[in-house]
Amino acid sequence: MLAEIITIGDEILIGQIVDTNSAFIGAELNKIGVKVLQITSIQDESSQILDALAQANDRVDLVLLTGGLGPTKDDITKAMFLEYFNDTLIENHTVLAHIHDIFKTHLKRDPLPSNLTQAMVPSKASILRNAHGTAPGMWMEKNNTVFVSMPGVPFEMKALLKNEVLPRVKVKFKRPHIYHKTLLTFGQGESQIQERITAWEEALPEYIKLAYLPSFGSVRLRLSSTGVDKIKVEYAVNKQMLLLSEILQDIAIGYEDETSLVGRISEILVEKGHTLSVVESCTGGSIAKSITAIAGASSYFKGGLIPYSTALKTEILKVDSRLIEKHTVVSIEVACAMAENSRDLFKSDYGLATTGVAGPAKGDTNKEVGTVCIAIAGPRGVMVEEFSLGDHRERVIAKAHNKALEMLLKELSKN
Amino acid sequence: MLAEIITIGDEILIGQIVDTNSAFIGAELNKIGVKVLQITSIQDESSQILDALAQANDRVDLVLLTGGLGPTKDDITKAMFLEYFNDTLIENHTVLAHIHDIFKTHLKRDPLPSNLTQAMVPSKASILRNAHGTAPGMWMEKNNTVFVSMPGVPFEMKALLKNEVLPRVKVKFKRPHIYHKTLLTFGQGESQIQERITAWEEALPEYIKLAYLPSFGSVRLRLSSTGVDKIKVEYAVNKQMLLLSEILQDIAIGYEDETSLVGRISEILVEKGHTLSVVESCTGGSIAKSITAIAGASSYFKGGLIPYSTALKTEILKVDSRLIEKHTVVSIEVACAMAENSRDLFKSDYGLATTGVAGPAKGDTNKEVGTVCIAIAGPRGVMVEEFSLGDHRERVIAKAHNKALEMLLKELSKN
Q1: Is the domain covering A2-172 a CATH 3.90.550.10 domain?
Q2: Where on the phi/psi map is residue A125: left (φ > 0), alpha (ψ -120 to 50), or beta?
Q3: What letter does residue B368 receive in the DSSP assignment?
Q4: Which of A384, B34, B103, B175 pairs as cysteine with B29 (C-beta 3.0–4.6 A)?
Q5: What is the topology classification, in CATH, of domain B261-413?
Q6: pLDDT per residue as tens, chain A (415 positions)
């Protein structure tokens, strides 16, 4: 069965916001065997919404819409549903009670008339509970296609999708099993990898699809297959993945399934009972941010320091100022000292340190923009590497962030 | 004139990546007066790509495509261009020389045969230089519609769009002037705001469009207009915006134009010659990450500390342990002490501190999950607030991050 995601809102088309809803919905549908054929983003304009609904009706079995359900005049999705399904509004008492409850319990003020109009819903719609907001979801059908309208606020949409929409989709539609497995590699480009795996790729059965996903310094290789028999599908993909991992064993660092790089780091630290601290000069907090995004991080993450000026590296982190004078602040030597001293300062088993020139200016060093030194100090000593990561600030920071986490995972994975 | 953005790649549809390219392209086109009618994301499948090209041809004057230009077998956009434009490949010597140069200068190895095939391009295409990669952009025309194919790697696409595509679009198409201005407000919901501005909204001229953009704790109000006369369009929007700001003066914190919240904070700090440090407990580095993303941050950002355990707040930050015992670590009092001590530790004019319970566990406090205290210490004293930000970790962190930056901007904006 096929689905289409339609996101509604001028702010998406003028680039004022990035549409993250579609990726979330796509991933959730994929997990339950629904193939997303297309994602369409359109403006809050009546003719465009009606056209998009009609076109999606021709293409797919399930259409999930987000956005345009707010209480203000610029939101017109509900009115378009009325027109497309030739329907009228009725008051839904459950929604009305829910709105009153949200205002009483959470907002602690009386709802305005515009808030109460959220309880007026199309008479033919099945109404889906929006636990975190006042605009309910709406499930309607036409010509054998199901249309579901959800709010555009990501937090509200996510809960509504998971608790209300997906369970109904599972009952309504027969779906095949879709399975993906992704190998993470780093150190070689996609054409180098393709050359190495040519023979394997040519022998790959037609029902397994290979995709190359290059990003900063790493390439992810995704195998996908679809079928009615879950066990057969997964077996076929895993068998090929094993062969692939063997060919690329020198550059493979693991699989990406549900967990991210930082998720696997978290698992290992919890499992081994080890703790971590970070000292981020050029990465400016981005590594700490990723680590602390994981629930339960406080059990292994001791803390972080962002010594954004050279003086702080000597004063708070106690890096020997002669070492900095001799080697400059962006050096293998200073990175090692930072990582080691991080262990002392934060009393952690592992210390991760980054120092580099993110650019565009060079700062307190004579090193080229893009030079980044990353060190990891742990019970087994210090590992350190110097990288040259280009001359674009955002990219240097993102690359250094990824390299640091890759090095950390590598170090933690050793016995 | 109208445009459509088509992004190609299974990874978008299965939600493996978030499509950020579309927002970037949308914002750039909007700046030069090109209206994006639709964004379409489709799979690397020949029939879908051909259908999307044909449909876009009917709808718009300009089609910008990203993705599917890699050297590997799963990338088929170039082959689809050949089919759609009924064209054949020729070797382009400029591209070939560029590929050799990239390998020689940056990658320091010989190109593989698959890399060299990137120099084979459709004979009817105008070729656009991809400064940062080997896959060139392609500009082709059919039935009065221009189609431009660009690589999907954001860094390569951005430079190619700015340096090669937009200048050609400006020459090729007559465009009206599009102008947006966005007011940032915080403290009230969209229905409350709508109620307050009803009279103004009803008197708004038809050619000015109002949009409500709610996000965590804040609502942005965007006014948009389009016309041939730049001065008239901007004057009309600015006039209405002044009226709107006056009505909402108690909740308005400024305009969002090209600059973000953190961008404006940066401007004020540079202008006043003041410095900043942050101590992030519950926000775990996310504020420092935003601040250091701005080029030149090292001139005013002294550094940050992420004291992720209570012990570190007393040991490194020297917060009085009796204060913590008396009020618990998540309290107005401790937040104030953290912000003040941050000024001392980092020798900065301003110190920003966050302490809270991001959840799901409560940690070293008896406070409810979602309780966050934020303090800003500066030359004029300390401002502090306690918030209740819900029970969803990601959302608590994001909200606390936004609240902290809003408070900081408010404090910095005072004379």
Answers
A1: no
A2: beta
A3: P
A4: B34
A5: Maf protein (3.90.950)
A6: 999 999 999 889 998 889 999 999 999 998 898 999 999 999 999 999 999 999 999 999 999 999 999 888 788 999 999 999 999 999 999 999 999 999 998 778 899 898 999 999 999 999 999 999 999 999 999 999 999 999 999 989 999 999 999 999 999 999 988 888 889 887 788 888 999 999 999 999 999 989 888 776 678 899 999 988 888 999 999 999 999 999 998 888 778 754 567 888 998 999 999 999 999 999 999 999 999 999 899 999 999 999 988 888 899 999 999 999 999 999 999 999 999 999 999 999 999 999 999 888 776 678 889 999 999 999 999 999 999 888 788 888 988 998 899 899 888 987 5
Short-list A31, A118, A284, A27, CA closest to B284: A284
Check if B319 contacts A (Cβ < 8 Å).
no
Question: Is the CB of A15 less than 8 angstroms away from the CB of B37?
Answer: no
Q: Is A54 on the interface with B (CB under 8 A)?
A: no
Cα separation of A361 and B91, whole Å?
A: 40
C-alpha to C-alpha distances, B226 to A60, A280, A354, B221, B237, nearest whole angstrom: 35, 45, 47, 17, 10
- CA-derived radius of gyration, chain A: 26
* Candidates A40, A297, A395; nearest CB to B38: A40
Distances (CA, A) of A199 to A184, A194, A248, A257, B88: 20, 9, 13, 25, 28
- From the number of C-beta atoms within 10 Å of its C-beta (0-12, 13-18, 19+), residue B153 rates as buried
CA distance B381 to chain A (A): 24
pTM here?
0.74
Helix axis angle for B261-272 and B393-413, nearest 10°, is 30
- The amino acid present at A282, given as its one-letter code, is C
Class of domain B177-256: alpha beta
Q: Which residues pair with B386 in a beta bridge?
A: B373
Please say whether the beta carbons of A3 and A64 come within 8 A: yes
Residues with Cβ within 8 Å of residue A392, at least 6 apart in sequence: A359, B155
- In whole angstroms, give the CA distance from residue A397 to residue A372: 9
Q: Are B49 and B80 in contact (CB under 8 A)?
A: yes
Mind giving me the DSSP string for A48-94?
A: HHHHHHHHHHHH-SEEEEES--SSSTT--HHHHHHHHTT--EEE-HH
Domain boundaries, chain A: 2-172, 177-256, 261-413
CA distances (Å), B35 to each of B51, B137, B176, B221, B406, in order?
22, 22, 9, 20, 31
Cis peptide before A71 (omega within 30 of 0): no
Tokens of B57: 């041809």
- Of B10, B298, B312, Cβ closest to residue A302: B312
Q: Give Cβ neighbours of residue B296 (< 8 Å, ≥ 6 apart).
A: A361, B266, B270
Whether the Cβ atoms of residue A386 and residue A243 lie closer than 8 Å to each other: no
How far apart are the C-alpha atoms of B318 and B235, rounded to whole Å? 53
Q: Does any CB of chain A come closer than 8 Å to the CB of residue B288?
A: yes
Structure-block tokens of residue B94? 């400029």
Q: Cβ of B298 under 8 Å from any chain A Cβ?
A: yes
Those of residues 150-209 in B touching chain A at CB distance below 8 A are 153, 155, 180, 182, 189-192, 194-195, 201, 209
CA distance B321 to B323: 5
Mutation to test the B interface, candidates A8, A48, A66, A72, most B Cβ within 10 Å: A72
Scanning the structure block, which residue is given the tokens 């923009």? A369
Q: Cβ distance B299 to B288 under 8 Å? A: no
> Rounded to whole angstroms, how far apart are CA atoms B31 and B363?
47
Instruction: Give, in order, the Cα–Cα distances in Å from A176 to each of A32, A39, A232.
Output: 8, 21, 12
